Amino acid sequence: MGSQYAAARRRAQYLPAVLLCALFSLSAAGFLGGCGGTGAASGAAASPSPSGSPHPGGTYNFPLDYTPISLTPFGDQTGGNQVQHQIFEGLVAYATRSDGTLVVAPALAQSWSANADATVWTFKLRRGVRFQAPVGREVTAQDVVADFRYGTDRANHAYFSYMYQPIAGTDANGYATSGHLGVQALDRYTVRFTLKQPFASFPDTLGNPFAWAWPVDYLRRVGRARFEEQPVGTGPFLLSRWVRGQSIDLVRNPDWWDGASGQPYVNRIHFRIFPSVSAELQAFQSGLVDYTWVPQGQVAASRTLPQVRSGSWSAQTVPVLALTYLAFNMDDPVLGGKQGLPLRQAMSYLCDRQAMIEAASEGTFRLPTGLVPSILPGWQENMLPQTYDPATAAALYKQAGSPRLRLVAFDAPWFRAEARQLEASCAAAGIALSVRLLSWDDYEAMYTSSGGPPMSLTGWIADYPAADNFLYDLFYSRVSTWSLGTAYSDPAVDRLLAQARSTADPARHLGLNQRAAREIIADLPLVPLFEFTDYRLTSNRIGGFRENGMSWVDMWELWVR
Predict the structure, then answer these.
(1) What is the residue extent of each domain of the chain?
(2) Residue 525 banded pLDDT, cuts 50, 70, 90
(3) What is the pLDDT of residues 422-458, one digit of tens each?
(4) CATH 3.10.105.10 fits 328-534, yes or no
(5) What is the pLDDT of residue 425?
(6) Residues 6 or more apart in contact with residue 549 via CB below 8 angstroms
(7) Is 89-233 assigned to CATH 3.40.250.10?
(8) Is the Cα torsion angle 101, 102, 104, 107 positive or negative in sign?
(9) In angstroms, rounded to a whole number, what is the distance separating the alpha carbons of residues 334 and 341?
(10) Lowest-confidence segment of 154-158, 165-169, 195-199, 382-386 by average pLDDT
């Protein structure tokens, strides 16, 4: 599980607006030429002060850069995930702590527990949660079972079918086999999951769309086509109107189970669909939306805009669960194995990460601390041994026989910036490096047909907020070839990763993964270059704005000042 830019386009579309599409296109969008708007959406005056307390009423206006294909948990997620996040909920939710780290919190499940080796998980459902109108009945454990049975049925073509793969009774693609599916309702409010193998991070996966709750019996009654047009979940907002290609409107769910505090505060969310990022930016400047991306090359200027200085707008940077790497094919006769370690170290010493970050994002991306994003708890300590040192790189390169090296990268803005920096560093150190930038299709084909080049620039987007998604899914021997093409294999690391997966105790689980990470870093199958962030402008007529590391905005926490 996880998303690699070259080999998993379908999965990577899970964060389409954040990384794969918006960041690819931002550099081409115009922005600052007409920044004269007030930032007040729907005709309301923007407040220059961040003060104020939550209160009900008003409309929040959010832009979409793509026309959603589906708004259901099982449908194509392209373009619609931010909308779905307001309508549906899972057994768990993803919450940002005060220190900025991303954690799993109870949602429709109020508690859960595992057996000794983390192969059986039992979830206790919250009582009194009801599906939205027109269904209106209580959510039970049998609904959870029905949702998972629907998603694992190959005939239903669930978009995230691969996320079901850990569950007993599914095949490698997550589809149910002829045997017993490992999801069982023990009573009205208790669900048990039986897995194929230990998986201590299993609860961390259940905040994703594949595990969101919805009424299967209602879909069977009205038909899939109608359910697609009027989906029903348990979340704080209901779908009111969907004009395809133009807009989507959600309204407050008056029967939301978690509404005791007065949330959701806004009465309505208006999603306006734009044909391009530049059109979205212009709409923000005109006050039609409360949020916008900032294109590459305009970040520094955006921070000094009059509206930012006055407090009408805020310029914010939010880390997301994604990393970019310099990756090595460990089967390559020159760069791979123990014999290739000096060359891999040389290339690591030539990675001027801060220069790459400045070139790729005007300083908004973050320095990595290791193999796991630093917004996950316990991964703030710097584990990276090599710093920028061209002299040491040159000595190691000479020691290795001075071979000519080849680098392949996808032709995207940040990869071009990384490639240029490496090319310049290699030239200064007397290292022969040729760089080849490929189209998406050619880059994808290279990974799927040949297993990957000797050295490449690549990246990984998390499916769920756990170190497991960056360690086991990239470095465990049976999966390391198809993930980032490193073909990394180490029995000692495999044992540590397997032990971590078998250990539900949080402290021991973290410790085992940290030991594995240090072993992997010493072997250097790849070099982390930077952590991605989401940089955007928001209107301060809105209070309570917060975006988490999954790039979701919890819009039920927002209020109009």
Answers:
(1) 89-233, 328-534
(2) very high
(3) 999 999 999 999 999 999 899 888 877 666 799 999 9
(4) yes
(5) 94
(6) 94, 96, 102, 318, 319, 320, 321, 373, 375, 465
(7) no
(8) positive
(9) 9
(10) 382-386
